[in-house]
Amino acid sequence: MKGENPAEPNTELCRRMLSPRNLVQAISNVKKNRGSAGVDGMEVYEIDEYMEDNWKRIEEQILARKYKPKPVKRVEIPKDNGGVRLLGVPCVIDRVIQQAMVQVLSPLFEPTFSDYSYGFRPGRSAEDALRKAQEYMAEGYKHVVDLDLSKFFDTVNHDYLMSQVDRTLEDKDIR
């Protein structure tokens, strides 16, 4: 029976996330983005060999719900105003897994987002937001609202957030 073998994905989304095609694309995207090593010191260029040697074990952990991402490396980036911006750098393998999930989940959630939202959206940029604001100004509007949801995930009601996620994503195995 499907789902009884812990090495067998038991949902369609899980199968898509862990498919070789999706993982190859995820690895390619992580390599393209480059980035620094996480707490384990692994560099992006090392991911192919690492995946070859370790993927089966990691996949089994994911399917058994026993995979634990490594801690995120905290980095301070200096700001022009003298302050610092805190940045979290996940390990490369965690970035690959996150990217594999994004590739499967984005097409499900993207249609639920507001057309007025531009931040961190595929095919949208800050320039697109500015262009849209200029269009509105040309139509006579006088105000533009720019929101930065700093500390959002520190303060959001997680039960409510997950109930909203569940409205779009019925698959609890990938949640």
H/I helix tally: 7
Helix and strand element order: HHHEEHHHH
Low-confidence stretches: none
What fraction, in percent, of the residue positions are helical?
A: 40-55%
Give an overview in words.
The protein has 175 residues and is mainly alpha-helical. Helix content is 48%, strand content 7%. A two-stranded antiparallel sheet has the order 1-2. A hairpin with a 5-residue loop joins β1 (73-78) and β2. The relative contact order is 0.14.
Task: Looking at this protein, list some descriptive labels.
single chain, 175 residues, mainly alpha, 7 helices, 2 strands
Brief characterization of the structure:
The protein has 175 residues and is mostly helical. The chain has 7 helices and 2 strands, in the order H-H-H-E-E-H-H-H-H.
Fold blueprint:
Elements: H1 12-18, H2 20-33, H3 47-63, E1 73-78, E2 84-89, H4 92-109, H5 126-138, H6 152-155, H7 158-168
Antiparallel strand pairs: 1-2
